């Protein structure tokens, strides 16, 4: 695929790229909707990546093309970039360049060509993969030498302020900082990260990603409303963020809050606790013990945070009934994907059971992917 990206870049832009970079999508094992509450998460990178071929330009133009786009090259004057200046997929690469310039960094134009195997709208962070591929390419092309955590903040700012999605930093941190064979324990307040060994094969396990094919758009207002509710709850409780409320103080805090905020706070606090327990079981070399934590996390997302949907609920129920150790939706919700931790010898039968359940319910057949903990963003050519 690298050779194809290089050749397509040459065909589209008329000269060879200076390099090719890759940034992965991610699944989040546990810790959903916690990052914008300064909380904890445990994502891992996927082997599916966004590839970006790039070459600097000296005329101040940013020209971007995607193999998954409409065939046209979108062109922008770098010094004219501002929120609202780009739409569709192009707002993500344009937003990263804008965000770098907003920090006063000396970056100019570039020719870019993108090709991705990260499914869009599946809750696997296709937008963050694109942003992070641009971020690492620009970091090298323009000699910025930024730390990975700083690049993640740049990419998050691009998605927040330029693309209009009020996400936390987890997706970008996962795409930039994950390591092969490990999950990433993220403390969003720093942000700071540490690698936690996640040996699926050695324990006879598989992690299935069940793409329900229900597309979601986190810029449609629902995500922003959830974040605003959490921030309001923290203010009412006199806390910097909900991360500062532990399980011991939860009951008392819930009694002080308006009813509509109670389930949001309960989810965030219990989800942070589940992340801590997940790190403990992985550190102890007991990844099979993740299963019940996944299923409990899904129940919280479904019943308290209310970001599930019939397709994701069915995928979880069917996977567990077929022998999965645990399952839950992953990503922001309102569709997207479910992860299921299964004994490796049952992976095929669990995937088949979910597909059969979808067919019986009249849903579109899900895509079933096998996920392994993979490397973060990097130059590949």
Task: Summarize it.
With 381 residues, this protein is α+β, with helices and mostly antiparallel strands.
General description of the model:
With 381 residues, the chain is α+β, with helices and mostly antiparallel strands. It has two domains: 2-197 and 375-379, Ribosomal Protein S5, domain 2, CATH 3.30.230.10; 201-371, GHMP kinase, C-terminal domain (Alpha-Beta Plaits, 2-Layer Sandwich). It has eleven helices and 13 strands. The chain has helices at 2-13, 91-102, 126-141, 148-162, 170-177, 222-237, 250-256, 262-283, 290-305, 310-321, 347-361; strands spanning 19-28, 40-41, 43-57, 61-66, 74-77, 109-116, 182-187, 192-197, 205-211, 326-330, 337-343, 367-371, 378-379. The strands form three sheets. Strands 5-4-6-3-1-13 form a six-stranded mixed beta sheet, sandwiched between helices. A four-stranded antiparallel beta sheet has the order 10-11-9-12. A three-stranded antiparallel beta sheet has the order 2-7-8, with helices on both faces. A hairpin with a 4-residue loop joins strand 7 and strand 8 (192-197). Helix 2 packs across helix 3, helix 3 packs across helix 5 and helix 10 (310-321) crosses helix 11 (347-361). It is globular, with a radius of gyration of 21 Å. It starts with a helix and ends with a strand. The model has no long low-confidence stretch (mean pLDDT 96).
């Amino acid at each position: 695929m690298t050779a194809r990206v290089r050749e397509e870049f040459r065909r589209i832009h008329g000269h060879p790229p200076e390099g090719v970079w890759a940034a992965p999508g991610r699944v989040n094992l546990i810790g959903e909707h916690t990052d914008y509450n300064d909380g904890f998460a445990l994502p891992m990178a996927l082997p599916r990546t966004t590839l970006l071929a790039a070459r600097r330009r000296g005329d101040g133009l940013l020209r971007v093309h995607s193999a998954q786009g409409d065939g046209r090259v979108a062109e922008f004057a770098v010094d004219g970039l501002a929120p609202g200046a780009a739409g569709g997929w192009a707002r993500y690469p344009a937003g990263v360049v804008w965000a770098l310039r907003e920090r006063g960094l000396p970056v100019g134009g570039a020719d870019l060509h993108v090709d991705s195997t990260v499914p869009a709208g599946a809750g696997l962070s296709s937008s963050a993969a694109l942003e992070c591929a641009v971020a690492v390419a620009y970091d090298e092309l323009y000699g910025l030498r930024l730390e990975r955590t700083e690049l993640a903040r740049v990419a998050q700012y691009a998605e927040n302020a330029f693309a209009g999605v009020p996400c936390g930093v987890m997706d970008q941190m996962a795409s930039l900082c994950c390591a092969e064979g490990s999950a990433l324990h993220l403390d969003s307040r720093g942000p700071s990260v540490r690698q936690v060994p996640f040996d699926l094969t050695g324990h006879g396990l598989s992690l299935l990603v069940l793409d329900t094919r229900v597309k979601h758009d986190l810029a449609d207002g629902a995500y922003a409303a959830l974040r605003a509710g959490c921030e309001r709850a923290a203010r009412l409780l006199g806390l910097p963020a909900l991360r500062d409320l532990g399980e011991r103080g939860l009951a008392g805090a819930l009694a002080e809050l308006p009813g509509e905020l109670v389930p949001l706070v309960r989810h965030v606090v219990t989800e942070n606790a589940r992340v801590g327990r997940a790190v403990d079981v992985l550190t102890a070399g007991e990844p099979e013990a993740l299963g019940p934590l996944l299923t409990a996390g899904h129940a919280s997302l479904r019943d308290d945070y209310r970001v599930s949907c019939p397709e994701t609920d069915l995928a979880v129920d069917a996977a567990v009934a077929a022998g999965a150790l645990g399952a839950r939706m992953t990503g922001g919700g309102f569709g997207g994907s479910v992860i299921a931790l299964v004994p490796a010898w049952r992976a095929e039968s669990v995937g088949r059971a979910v597909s059969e359940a979808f067919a019986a319910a009249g849903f579109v057949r899900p895509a079933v992917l096998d996920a392994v903990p993979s490397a973060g963003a990097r130059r590949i050519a």
